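Re: the 195-residue chain
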Amino acid sequence: MTRTRVTPELLQFYGLPEDGSLSQYEFATRTNAGNATVKGVEIGYRQSLTFLPRWARGIQLNGNFTRLSSSGSATADLSGFNPKKYSGGVSLTRERYSMRLTYSFQDKTRDSATPVSVANGIPANTFNYTDAYARWIADAQYSFNKRLTFYGMLKDIGGLYVHQLRYTTGTPDYARGARLQKLGYTFTIGVKGTF
């Protein structure tokens, strides 16, 4: 990302007022420059437990693992790049109902660069991050008949905490926290009908 102080030429180019009201702002632009390579592996697995007794049939396990790495001159522009994710779950499916429990984990993600600010003590190469977090989701549905189905979902069981970080090389751990959000959980219930 390139940041440029406001100039009369830029204001004129973008058709903005040249009355001085924008003189304290900067233009931030992105260009596709340099090169970057992303390499990685993704492994997924799904298994129906058909060997179980008849009363336990319909249980299925699944899992997914993704690991990525980046290299090249444009790696600083990979905002939102997440190097590691994994998830898994168990489900039970029967003729009239189904239930599922899933777990997912997302590793720390670099979000964006922070503008240098001598007044606020923000040095060059300071980035914003979203710290690693995990989520649990449970959902179920029950079909009363071919046309009417009841469903429910509980997302982020135990509450979701998202920790925002801001730091550069050498920033001590205790000084990296920028914001902690307690987002709680969400619950959805409803009825699906086909008429």
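DSSP finds one helix and eleven strands in the chain.
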